[in-house]
Recover the amino acids of this structure.
């Protein structure tokens, strides 16, 4: 079946095709359409699922932890401040090893209050133990949500998975999507068989107190599970291609990397724009390619090392920032090729708060880097004071004058 | 100090989680934490079982025997006893 739908409705279709049995979520722009559509599916009898309306995101994740602990396939959706509000529970869900899937619509964090796209929200949840997969198209949102359950429930993994996609660009724009037949998806994704469920006849405690002698092994087990998930993500993507037919890469997706001497590295919808920049760069005589990071956690260490280490130059595009440091992905790309490469590594932080990132901007910065006109550090190429900044500054200056502040 | 682990000694430890099954004394004899010890005067006791209900550590049995291995000396039994049959006494430790 072919639909023209918003990315949010497509995510709802993902939960439906995966036969999620419990959905617990709180509405937040720009995620609201996801749970509206799921509510409609349930109301119209198209989805056999319990929807738990909760009073906050903290409760949404708490209810997910409850349902997953009962051995039920669970789904949630959130964004930005909602993700921050449930941050503590993200650690709980991963720490007690509960398989579940949540989509997060990547939205900038306030203040200033902003409902548009950047990656700061999920980057801030990077070290919670969740697997983080980033999508670049509507079809990929659907396919990744279904694959996410396979990854999450795999016995080598048993961790929650966050499927991330860009606000507005993907969440609200309409695109054509192929919805596979339910029988086909069922062949790819068998029913969830939990390793345990809460049982009155066999009581136990999840996430109990543990002492210094016991704690490190629990964290090490999570660390290894994230490591194991690299192979599981790859296998899930390949089997999905064999059974359902779509493929968007595994931990990474590459574009025109054949014979490349330089590469762009990006995540999410910017990576689609970067493909056009790659075409322009190739036309201008620079053999450049693109690596789109699809899995941010686990980070594609080996894949990036193999592709990037032999290159002359790498330009990372970060849609988030680590204040007091640099673009977060910039640090990580440098880390994986450290000691194994002579590549120059550059970084631009751009597209924050939904600012449009054009292929011309990417092209200009890549060309500047290749001509040695860019420094090997984080730069902010799109920053410039406009009329709004000036008016706000003027207002403050008038206030200072009135108060006699010099 | 634990000795540094060689690379080849790194092992696949598999699934380790914080799921605990209730069992007696899994963290040792918590009775050693006690400062005050509850002492029962059997002549005053009418076996109303309020202490049995209220004891948060399930250290009082239905025949009113106090398990001093795990009693932490919180004093709730003494507080709840309507006949003042339980007295908290400072415990001398050797």
């Amino acid at each position: 079946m072919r639909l023209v739908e918003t990315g949010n409705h497509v995510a709802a279709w993902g939960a439906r095709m995966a036969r999620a049995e419990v959905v617990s979520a709180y509405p937040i722009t720009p995620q609201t359409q996801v749970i509206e559509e799921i509510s409609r599916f349930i109301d119209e009898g198209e989805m056999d699922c319990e929807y738990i309306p909760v009073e906050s995101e903290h409760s949404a994740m708490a209810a997910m932890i409850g349902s997953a602990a009962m051995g039920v396939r669970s789904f949630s959706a959130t964004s930005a401040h909602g993700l921050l509000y449930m941050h503590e529970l993200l650690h709980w869900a991963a720490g007690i090893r509960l398989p579940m899937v949540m989509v997060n619509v990547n939205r900038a964090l306030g203040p200033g209050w902003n409902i548009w796209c950047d990656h700061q929200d999920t980057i801030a949840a990077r070290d919670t133990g969740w697997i983080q997969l980033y999508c670049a198209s509507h079809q990929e949102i659907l396919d990744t949500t279904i694959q996410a359950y396979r990854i999450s429930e795999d016995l080598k993994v048993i961790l929650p998975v966050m499927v991330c996609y860009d606000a507005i660009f993907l969440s609200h724009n309409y695109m054509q999507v192929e919805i596979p037949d339910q029988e086909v998806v069922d062949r790819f994704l068998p029913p969830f068989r939990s390793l345990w469920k809460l049982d009155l006849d066999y009581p136990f405690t999840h996430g109990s107190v543990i002492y210094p002698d016991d704690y490190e092994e629990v964290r090490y087990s999570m660390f290894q599970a994230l490591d194991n998930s690299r192979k599981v993500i790859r296998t899930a993507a390949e089997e999905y291609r064999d059974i359902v037919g779509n493929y968007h890469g595994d931990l990474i997706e590459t574009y025109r990397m054949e014979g490349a001497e330089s590469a762009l590295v990006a995540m999410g919808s910017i990576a689609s724009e970067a493909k056009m920049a790659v075409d322009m760069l190739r036309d201008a005589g620079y053999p450049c390619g693109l690596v789109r990071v699809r899995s941010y956690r686990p980070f594609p260490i080996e894949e990036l090392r193999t592709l990037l280490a032999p290159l002359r130059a790498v330009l990372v595009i970060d849609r988030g920032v680590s204040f007091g440091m640099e673009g977060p992905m910039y640090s990580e790309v440098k880390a994986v090729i450290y000691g194994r490469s002579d590549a120059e590594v550059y970084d631009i932080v751009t597209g924050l708060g939904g600012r449009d990132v054009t292929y011309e901007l990417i092209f200009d910065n890549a060309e500047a880097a290749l001509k040695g006109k860019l420094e090997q550090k984080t730069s902010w190429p799109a920053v410039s004071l406009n009329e709004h900044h000036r008016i706000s500054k003027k207002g403050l200056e008038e206030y200072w004058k009135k108060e006699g502040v010099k | 100090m634990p000795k540094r682990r060689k690379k080849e000694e790194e092992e696949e430890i598999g699934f380790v989680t914080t799921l605990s099954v209730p069992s007696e004394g899994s963290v040792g004899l918590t009775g050693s934490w006690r400062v005050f010890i509850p002492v029962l005067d059997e002549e005053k006791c009418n076996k109303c079982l309020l202490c049995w209900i209220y004891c948060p550590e399930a250290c009082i049995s239905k025949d009113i025997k106090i398990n001093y291995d795990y009693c932490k000396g919180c004093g709730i039994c003494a507080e709840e006893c309507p006949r003042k049959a339980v007295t908290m006494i400072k415990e001398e430790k050797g």
